[in-house]
Amino acid sequence: MKRFTLAMALFLALGGNPALAVESTPPPKEEEAETQRTEQDESPASLFSASATVGTSFVTQYVNARGFTPHDGPSLQPFASVTLGHTPYGSLSYTMWQSLRLDHGTVTEEDHIVTYSNSAGPVTMNVEWARYIAPGVGVFEEVNTSLSVDVPSHPKVLVAYDYRDGSGVFAELSVSQGIALGGPLSLEGTLAGMYNGGYAVDSHSFAGLKFDISVPIQVTDGLTLRMHGRQFVATHEDFSSDTSVGATLTYTATNDEHKD
Protein backbone atom coordinates (compact mmCIF):
# COMPACT_ATOMS: atom_id res chain seq x y z
CA MET A 1 0.00 0.00 0.00
CA LYS A 2 2.89 2.37 0.83
CA ARG A 3 4.34 1.83 -2.64
CA PHE A 4 0.95 2.60 -4.24
CA THR A 5 0.54 5.76 -2.14
CA LEU A 6 4.07 7.02 -2.93
CA ALA A 7 3.63 6.35 -6.65
CA MET A 8 0.35 8.21 -6.69
CA ALA A 9 1.80 11.19 -4.85
CA LEU A 10 4.70 11.39 -7.33
CA PHE A 11 2.26 11.09 -10.22
CA LEU A 12 0.14 14.02 -8.99
CA ALA A 13 3.27 16.17 -8.44
CA LEU A 14 3.98 15.94 -12.22
CA GLY A 15 1.34 17.76 -12.27
CA GLY A 16 3.66 44.08 -24.52
CA ASN A 17 2.87 47.32 -25.47
CA PRO A 18 -0.82 48.22 -25.67
CA ALA A 19 -2.24 48.18 -29.17
CA LEU A 20 -2.85 51.53 -30.84
CA ALA A 21 -6.47 52.40 -31.46
CA VAL A 22 -7.27 53.28 -35.07
CA GLU A 23 -10.36 55.27 -35.81
CA SER A 24 -12.09 54.40 -39.07
CA THR A 25 -15.07 55.70 -40.93
CA PRO A 26 -18.31 53.73 -40.77
CA PRO A 27 -18.68 51.15 -43.55
CA PRO A 28 -21.16 51.65 -46.34
CA LYS A 29 -24.66 50.29 -45.81
CA GLU A 30 -23.99 47.16 -47.92
CA GLU A 31 -20.80 46.35 -46.00
CA GLU A 32 -22.54 47.01 -42.66
CA ALA A 33 -25.32 44.58 -43.52
CA GLU A 34 -22.77 41.96 -44.59
CA THR A 35 -20.86 42.49 -41.33
CA GLN A 36 -24.03 41.93 -39.29
CA ARG A 37 -24.81 38.77 -41.22
CA THR A 38 -21.26 37.47 -40.62
CA GLU A 39 -21.52 38.17 -36.89
CA GLN A 40 -24.83 36.32 -36.75
CA ASP A 41 -23.34 33.35 -38.60
CA GLU A 42 -20.37 33.25 -36.21
CA SER A 43 -22.47 33.53 -33.05
CA PRO A 44 -22.71 30.20 -31.20
CA ALA A 45 -25.80 28.21 -32.16
CA SER A 46 -27.82 26.57 -29.43
CA LEU A 47 -27.26 22.86 -29.20
CA PHE A 48 -29.68 20.18 -28.06
CA SER A 49 -28.10 16.84 -27.23
CA ALA A 50 -29.31 13.41 -26.20
CA SER A 51 -27.17 10.44 -25.28
CA ALA A 52 -27.52 6.95 -23.88
CA THR A 53 -24.78 4.96 -22.16
CA VAL A 54 -24.56 1.30 -21.19
CA GLY A 55 -21.64 -0.51 -19.65
CA THR A 56 -20.32 -2.84 -17.02
CA SER A 57 -17.36 -2.98 -14.66
CA PHE A 58 -15.45 -5.85 -13.12
CA VAL A 59 -13.68 -5.12 -9.81
CA THR A 60 -11.67 -7.35 -7.50
CA GLN A 61 -13.67 -5.91 -4.60
CA TYR A 62 -16.22 -3.14 -4.22
CA VAL A 63 -14.61 -0.11 -2.56
CA ASN A 64 -17.17 2.67 -2.96
CA ALA A 65 -16.75 6.42 -3.40
CA ARG A 66 -17.51 7.17 0.27
CA GLY A 67 -14.69 5.01 1.64
CA PHE A 68 -16.70 1.89 2.55
CA THR A 69 -16.22 -1.67 1.29
CA PRO A 70 -19.72 -3.20 0.94
CA HIS A 71 -18.26 -6.41 -0.51
CA ASP A 72 -14.67 -7.67 -0.27
CA GLY A 73 -14.87 -10.10 -3.19
CA PRO A 74 -15.12 -9.90 -7.01
CA SER A 75 -18.10 -7.93 -8.28
CA LEU A 76 -19.76 -7.21 -11.60
CA GLN A 77 -21.29 -3.72 -11.85
CA PRO A 78 -23.61 -3.04 -14.82
CA PHE A 79 -25.04 0.42 -15.41
CA ALA A 80 -27.11 2.46 -17.86
CA SER A 81 -27.86 6.16 -18.19
CA VAL A 82 -29.68 8.65 -20.41
CA THR A 83 -28.83 12.35 -20.69
CA LEU A 84 -30.71 15.28 -22.21
CA GLY A 85 -29.00 18.63 -22.58
CA HIS A 86 -29.31 22.09 -24.09
CA THR A 87 -26.26 24.30 -24.35
CA PRO A 88 -27.44 27.38 -22.42
CA TYR A 89 -29.36 25.45 -19.78
CA GLY A 90 -27.14 22.48 -18.89
CA SER A 91 -28.05 18.80 -18.89
CA LEU A 92 -30.20 16.37 -16.93
CA SER A 93 -29.37 12.69 -16.62
CA TYR A 94 -30.69 9.53 -14.97
CA THR A 95 -28.44 6.60 -14.07
CA MET A 96 -29.19 3.12 -12.80
CA TRP A 97 -26.25 1.14 -11.37
CA GLN A 98 -25.90 -2.24 -9.66
CA SER A 99 -23.20 -4.25 -7.91
CA LEU A 100 -23.46 -8.04 -8.02
CA ARG A 101 -21.39 -10.48 -5.97
CA LEU A 102 -19.89 -13.03 -8.31
CA ASP A 103 -19.34 -15.60 -5.55
CA HIS A 104 -23.03 -15.66 -4.49
CA GLY A 105 -24.72 -14.19 -7.56
CA THR A 106 -26.63 -11.69 -5.41
CA VAL A 107 -27.12 -7.94 -5.69
CA THR A 108 -25.30 -6.04 -2.92
CA GLU A 109 -26.37 -2.57 -4.06
CA GLU A 110 -28.66 -0.81 -6.54
CA ASP A 111 -28.43 2.93 -7.16
CA HIS A 112 -30.78 5.39 -8.85
CA ILE A 113 -29.25 8.80 -9.56
CA VAL A 114 -30.60 12.01 -11.12
CA THR A 115 -28.01 14.67 -11.97
CA TYR A 116 -28.27 18.25 -13.22
CA SER A 117 -25.05 19.69 -14.64
CA ASN A 118 -24.13 23.09 -16.03
CA SER A 119 -20.96 25.03 -16.82
CA ALA A 120 -19.95 28.68 -16.86
CA GLY A 121 -16.50 29.23 -18.29
CA PRO A 122 -14.08 26.85 -16.55
CA VAL A 123 -16.48 26.11 -13.66
CA THR A 124 -18.85 23.13 -13.70
CA MET A 125 -21.60 22.59 -11.13
CA ASN A 126 -23.44 19.35 -10.47
CA VAL A 127 -26.55 18.93 -8.30
CA GLU A 128 -27.54 15.34 -7.66
CA TRP A 129 -30.19 13.23 -5.96
CA ALA A 130 -29.28 9.62 -5.24
CA ARG A 131 -31.06 6.62 -3.75
CA TYR A 132 -28.81 3.73 -2.65
CA ILE A 133 -30.54 0.40 -1.98
CA ALA A 134 -28.45 -2.15 -0.10
CA PRO A 135 -30.44 -5.39 0.49
CA GLY A 136 -30.10 -6.53 4.07
CA VAL A 137 -28.52 -3.22 5.12
CA GLY A 138 -30.98 -0.43 4.32
CA VAL A 139 -31.88 2.39 1.97
CA PHE A 140 -29.91 5.61 1.85
CA GLU A 141 -31.02 8.80 0.12
CA GLU A 142 -28.85 11.84 -0.35
CA VAL A 143 -28.57 15.13 -2.16
CA ASN A 144 -25.14 16.37 -3.12
CA THR A 145 -23.56 19.20 -5.02
CA SER A 146 -20.10 19.63 -6.48
CA LEU A 147 -18.03 22.39 -8.08
CA SER A 148 -15.03 21.70 -10.29
CA VAL A 149 -12.69 24.08 -12.10
CA ASP A 150 -10.99 23.28 -15.41
CA VAL A 151 -7.52 24.58 -14.50
CA PRO A 152 -4.26 22.75 -13.78
CA SER A 153 -4.81 20.19 -10.99
CA HIS A 154 -8.59 20.32 -11.68
CA PRO A 155 -9.73 21.03 -8.11
CA LYS A 156 -13.17 19.78 -7.10
CA VAL A 157 -15.22 20.03 -3.92
CA LEU A 158 -18.25 17.81 -3.19
CA VAL A 159 -20.68 17.92 -0.27
CA ALA A 160 -23.37 15.26 0.30
CA TYR A 161 -26.21 15.19 2.84
CA ASP A 162 -27.98 11.97 3.86
CA TYR A 163 -31.48 13.27 4.56
CA ARG A 164 -33.16 9.86 4.99
CA ASP A 165 -30.95 8.25 7.60
CA GLY A 166 -30.36 11.35 9.72
CA SER A 167 -28.10 14.36 9.49
CA GLY A 168 -25.05 12.66 8.01
CA VAL A 169 -22.73 14.84 5.94
CA PHE A 170 -19.92 13.74 3.66
CA ALA A 171 -17.39 16.12 2.11
CA GLU A 172 -14.56 15.56 -0.35
CA LEU A 173 -11.83 17.79 -1.79
CA SER A 174 -9.93 16.37 -4.74
CA VAL A 175 -7.33 17.23 -7.36
CA SER A 176 -6.75 15.41 -10.65
CA GLN A 177 -4.02 15.21 -13.25
CA GLY A 178 -3.48 13.50 -16.58
CA ILE A 179 -0.31 12.44 -18.36
CA ALA A 180 -0.02 11.48 -22.04
CA LEU A 181 1.53 8.03 -22.46
CA GLY A 182 2.06 8.30 -26.19
CA GLY A 183 -0.34 7.75 -29.03
CA PRO A 184 -3.96 7.70 -27.89
CA LEU A 185 -3.16 6.51 -24.36
CA SER A 186 -3.17 8.64 -21.23
CA LEU A 187 -2.85 8.08 -17.49
CA GLU A 188 -5.36 9.82 -15.23
CA GLY A 189 -5.11 10.13 -11.46
CA THR A 190 -7.15 11.66 -8.63
CA LEU A 191 -6.25 12.27 -5.00
CA ALA A 192 -9.13 13.03 -2.60
CA GLY A 193 -9.35 13.87 1.09
CA MET A 194 -12.61 12.69 2.68
CA TYR A 195 -14.48 13.95 5.75
CA ASN A 196 -17.38 11.95 7.24
CA GLY A 197 -19.75 13.71 9.60
CA GLY A 198 -22.09 10.93 10.72
CA TYR A 199 -22.70 9.62 7.19
CA ALA A 200 -23.63 5.93 7.73
CA VAL A 201 -21.38 5.94 10.84
CA ASP A 202 -21.60 7.52 14.29
CA SER A 203 -18.29 9.36 14.19
CA HIS A 204 -17.43 12.81 12.84
CA SER A 205 -13.88 12.66 11.55
CA PHE A 206 -11.48 12.78 8.65
CA ALA A 207 -12.15 9.40 7.05
CA GLY A 208 -9.04 9.05 4.92
CA LEU A 209 -7.42 9.51 1.52
CA LYS A 210 -8.69 8.02 -1.73
CA PHE A 211 -6.39 7.44 -4.71
CA ASP A 212 -7.89 6.66 -8.13
CA ILE A 213 -5.85 5.90 -11.24
CA SER A 214 -7.07 4.86 -14.70
CA VAL A 215 -6.04 4.35 -18.32
CA PRO A 216 -8.88 4.90 -20.84
CA ILE A 217 -8.60 3.13 -24.20
CA GLN A 218 -10.80 4.19 -27.11
CA VAL A 219 -11.75 0.91 -28.79
CA THR A 220 -14.12 2.27 -31.45
CA ASP A 221 -16.28 5.35 -31.86
CA GLY A 222 -18.41 5.38 -28.71
CA LEU A 223 -16.83 2.28 -27.16
CA THR A 224 -14.28 2.79 -24.36
CA LEU A 225 -12.33 0.35 -22.19
CA ARG A 226 -10.99 1.81 -18.95
CA MET A 227 -8.46 0.02 -16.74
CA HIS A 228 -8.58 1.41 -13.21
CA GLY A 229 -7.48 1.01 -9.61
CA ARG A 230 -8.49 2.49 -6.25
CA GLN A 231 -6.62 2.68 -2.96
CA PHE A 232 -8.38 3.93 0.14
CA VAL A 233 -6.16 4.77 3.11
CA ALA A 234 -8.27 4.96 6.28
CA THR A 235 -7.38 7.40 9.04
CA HIS A 236 -10.21 6.48 11.44
CA GLU A 237 -11.23 3.21 13.10
CA ASP A 238 -14.71 3.29 11.53
CA PHE A 239 -13.08 2.73 8.13
CA SER A 240 -10.76 0.11 6.65
CA SER A 241 -7.95 0.58 4.16
CA ASP A 242 -8.68 -1.34 0.97
CA THR A 243 -7.47 -1.76 -2.61
CA SER A 244 -9.48 -2.56 -5.72
CA VAL A 245 -8.53 -2.94 -9.39
CA GLY A 246 -10.74 -3.59 -12.37
CA ALA A 247 -11.89 -2.70 -15.86
CA THR A 248 -14.94 -0.91 -17.27
CA LEU A 249 -16.39 -1.28 -20.77
CA THR A 250 -18.70 1.58 -21.81
CA TYR A 251 -20.67 2.32 -24.98
CA THR A 252 -22.25 5.73 -25.57
CA ALA A 253 -24.56 6.77 -28.43
CA THR A 254 -25.05 10.52 -28.93
CA ASN A 255 -27.38 12.61 -31.07
CA ASP A 256 -26.61 16.35 -31.31
CA GLU A 257 -28.98 18.81 -33.01
CA HIS A 258 -27.95 22.40 -33.77
CA LYS A 259 -30.56 25.15 -33.70
CA ASP A 260 -30.04 28.77 -34.70
Description of the structure:
- Helix content is 10%, strand content 61%.
- With 260 residues, the protein is mainly beta.
- It has one domain (2-11, 55-252): monomeric porin ompg (Porin).
- Strands 1-2-3-4-5-6-7-8-9-10-11-12 form a twelve-stranded antiparallel beta barrel.
- Strand 11 and strand 12 (242-259) form a beta hairpin.
- The radius of gyration is 23 Å and the shape is globular.
- Mean pLDDT is 85; it is low at 1-29 and 37-43.
List the main descriptive attributes of the protein structure presented here.
single chain; 260 residues; mainly beta; Porin; twelve-stranded antiparallel β-barrel; 2 helices
Number of helices: 2
Output mean pLDDT: 85
Largest sheet: 12 strands, antiparallel, barrel
Alpha carbon gap, first and last residue: 54 Å
CATH class: Mainly Beta
Q: Say what the CATH topology is.
A: Porin
Overall CATH architecture: Beta Barrel
Beta-strand residue fraction: over 45%
The count of domains is 1
Strand order of the largest sheet: 1-2-3-4-5-6-7-8-9-10-11-12
- Helicity, as a percent range: 10-25%
Q: What would you call the structural class?
A: mainly beta
Rg of Cα set? 23 Å
Order of helices and strands: HHEEEEEEEEEEEE
Poorly predicted segments: 1-29, 37-43
Overall strand count: 12
Shape, per Cα inertia axes: globular
CATH homologous superfamily classification: monomeric porin ompg
